[in-house]
Specification:
7-stranded antiparallel sheet, 3-stranded antiparallel sheet, 2 domains, ChrR family anti-sigma-E factor, Jelly Rolls, Anti_sigma_zinc_sf, alpha+beta, RmlC-like_jellyroll, 219 residues, single chain
Length: 219
């Protein structure tokens, strides 16, 4: 059962299309597996549509029609040669676990060492290579260094569970953390945990070694 969800502010921004690519991907990954948030997102999209219908008509510049007709009459551009489709590479997952559909078209590196019992994978978002999205795979009983955030970090639990001193986050749960949150996520002893994360700004770790390892990930 999912206990932690994006708040209405995030869902409204998702409905309006104003979230960054990385954060939008995280919210979409949660929504696809959460019936409650699917219903809430549809409600917010309906509210947004009703608000648009109530807006006064906008007056277009006088040359808009001429520019549109010129574009219609312009000869078609020569088709660009299409590169052969590439299969998205992704690291191996535990048996029974599948990728969120929101990651369709995204690729991810093989698992890379981050620390004892800790691995990570860089996720490439094809339509926004600058998006800071990655996977964390943390072993049973392991914990990340204590940290806060310069801006915003979204986390979606894909497998396993962790507790960060505030709450327990299990499969399907979503977390948003900012500079007001100081925590140290620790994976439960029952098994490893895999999370998808999007970071805007920096994760601010305590300790020089932790900061160095975090910089390798882009955290």
């Amino acid at each position: 059962m999912i206990h932690h969800h994006p708040d209405d502010g995030l869902l409204l921004a998702q409905a309006a299309g104003t979230l960054s690519s990385g954060h939008s991907l995280l919210v979409a990954s949660h929504v696809e597996a959460c019936a409650e948030c699917q219903a809430r997102l549809r409600e917010l999209e309906s509210i947004g549509g009703a608000m648009l219908e109530q807006l006064a008509p906008a007056v277009l510049p006088s040359q808009s029609l001429a520019e549109a007709m010129a574009a219609i009459d312009a000869p078609p551009a020569a088709p660009k040669a299409k590169a052969p489709p590439r299969r998205s590479s992704r690291p191996a997952l535990p048996a029974g676990m599948s990728w969120p559909r929101a990651l369709h078209g995204c690729s991810a590196t093989a698992w890379r060492w981050l620390g004892p019992g800790m691995r990570w994978s860089r996720v490439t978002v094809p339509y926004d290579p600058a998006a800071n999205v990655f996977l964390l795979r943390i072993g049973a009983g392991k914990e990340l260094p204590f940290h806060t955030h310069s801006r915003s970090e979204l986390t979606q639990v894909l497998h396993g569970a962790f507790h960060d001193g505030r709450a327990l986050f299990g499969p399907g749960d979503f977390d948003e953390a900012d500079g007001d949150i100081h925590h140290q996520p620790k994976v439960l002893a029952a098994g490893e945990c895999i999370c998808l994360a999007s970071v805007e700004g920096r994760v601010m770790f305590q300790g020089a070694i932790a900061r160095m390892l975090g910089s390798l990930v882009g955290m």
